[in-house]
């Protein structure tokens, strides 16, 4: 069996100082060679690992034959955001994990192949999709992130008139404000949204549901509603010094960098503090994104402080490796105790304590326990807290009867229905912070449920 | 999106009033709420408290002082120009109820957000005593409007060029001392004014409300940049506020966080001025 084709990358030293995309994508020969590794299993397991059920063997077979146009058409039958998914999906725990070759060590690089097809189409210029005959039904989609974009696309393909309401000035949700340019270029997000507009989706930005209109009003104006309002308020640790100048939530730090383009300050007017020594608290993809962004803004040292060990890091392995290559320092089994104050209410360091792994907790992960007497100080001028978010509270104002969990997530049944008739929900608003693709899967399911509801009502 | 400026006028040195066509915002707006605007693609998003709104005409009035690059750029705009983004209404509306007699205090451009509250408190059946002030008489805004909307209007200027020679807090204190039963005081203005007012009213045990203006980006409960400490708890001004119990607010923290980007602000203005000059 031929080895898995390596992904060409920008040189780590160079890329650590720029915001250009890190992974450069396969060349055509590489793509065909990688596609040719697919064994075309009679009973392919990979598709079961895909939340949006892409016909993986189908598009790979077309790629083998050099039919990239056909391959992207196959992907787009079920996935409206292939250029995004090919870049940010955790394929190693989804389709690729179930690939028969994974058992022998190296699965087919399905994600990279998907990305190649999407980029191939973008280079040529994306053909306008055919519009479906109208059903005369109107659906409101709240939010413009991955869950909402997927739901909107699928609903539009069914012939429903879809209006999308976005609170920010730009679409894409976390794809725009959260994931950095070097991992997901914003031009790609724009193109994917453009495709969804061409399907007939009417996009309204600067429009806050819960403020301009309540959910109840929206239900009266539309035949059905999808809520994809995403994650909201950033969580903090509740330790001393968290409101000092120089302490950011990852949401704020990344929003400044990505949505407001603070890395191009002063050409773009939104400022950001460029730290010399930066500590990022947390071990997920958001923590990696924040750490690598801080490095690109010119930091001399950026550390990830995470209370569990390397095996427990929730971030994608690929992103952890990228971060290490770029020189991010991993201070594992370490937890902040308090943030130390310097002059003028600024940050001068973080007092941390070492941790040991004890018994497994309810999540099945071994819970970290502090080691008495191991307190130590790490110097820092910027601290970024990346320990998750709670759902956005805004939608809840003026929506009587929408059932939410004690932690504020919207409660849905297995078909994405909320407690209110004709309202479905999905994505981080339902699950709490999770992945782009799981949100897309939820958007897809909700679109099916809404279409079925509209057929019967 | 784009939002047309229906009218723009200077109402005091470096203070401007702008009526912006934004029918959805105007229809939903209530006293105490704010908007966030962005002038163009490279601009910051800046929060401004709503100074007035007209649901029928579909416009929202904002009043702002030239401070940094964005507000200076905004000041140069004129009628029929367009803003790229104008989003709102954000934050919780002011908690306006019939309480009896209330004092509404506005300092500097803080008079602007007080004005719709004066109307709202009066509509709710309260006796409204307004106290407005500025550094000098030229900087005093909305005097006529406030006069018309209030049951009583008191004026103070730091230099004595109009009304009481001193601070609005002195005037408010006199009213409290007069023995008239005051149910609530609302104070909006520079953080230092709100801090002083909170200290002044505390011994009287009068409920005191302030409207906080920390640095914000999205204004929808996503970024956490606007966090303030109220009663020892971290709150987000955009979704938990902007109004809070003045006696519980940590004003020192608010002021220090407001000053965070001062060096960058200076750099941004410098670059802007350089660009302007080279363009001439």
Strand order of the biggest β-sheet of chain B:
6-1-2-5-4-3-7
The overall average pLDDT of chain A, rounded, is 92
Q: Uncertain regions of chain A: pLDDT < 50 for 5+ in a row? A: none
The radius of gyration of chain A is 22 Å
- Write down the secondary-structure element order of chain B: EEHEEEHEEEHEHEEHEHEEEHEHH
Instruction: Please identify the structural class of chain A as seen in this structure.
Output: alpha/beta
How would you name the oligomeric state of the polypeptide chains in this document?
Answer: heterodimer
Strand content of chain A: 15-25%
Q: Ends of chain A: how far apart?
A: 54 Å
Helical residue percent band of chain B: 25-40%
Span of the ends, CA to CA of chain B? 30 Å
How many H/I helices of chain A? Answer: 16
**Structural class given helices, strands, pairing of chain B?**
alpha/beta
* Largest sheet properties of chain B: 7 strands, antiparallel
Characterise this structure.
Chain A is α/β, with parallel strands linked by helices and 457 residues long. Chain A has helices at 12-15, 28-35, 56-64, 68-76, 82-88, 95-98, 110-124, 146-157, 174-177, 186-198, 215-221, 250-259, 285-296, 317-326, 428-431, 436-456; strands at 138-142, 161-165, 202-204, 224-227, 231-234, 247-249, 277-281, 301-305, 329-331, 334-341, 347-360, 366-370, 376-379, 382-385, 389-391, 423-425. Chain A contains 16 helices and 16 strands. Chain A has a five-stranded parallel β-sheet with strand order 3-2-1-4-16, sandwiched between helices. In chain A, helix 3 runs antiparallel to helix 4 (68-76) and helix 4 (68-76) packs across helix 7. The radius of gyration of chain A is 22 Å and the shape is globular. A seven-stranded antiparallel β-sheet of chain B has the order 6-1-2-5-4-3-7. The longest helix of chain B is centred in the last third of the chain and has 18 residues, at 262-279. The relative contact order of chain B is 0.13. Residues 275-280 of chain B have low confidence and may be disordered. Chain A binds chain B through residues 167-169, 177, 204-208, 211-213, 231-234, 236, 242-243, 245, 248-249, 251-252, 255-256, 259-261, 265-271, 273, 344-345, 392-394, and chain B through 1, 24-25, 27-28, 38, 42-45, 69-70, 84-90, 217-218, 220-225, 227, 229, 234, 236, 239, 253, 256-257, 259-261, 264-265, 267-268, 271-272.
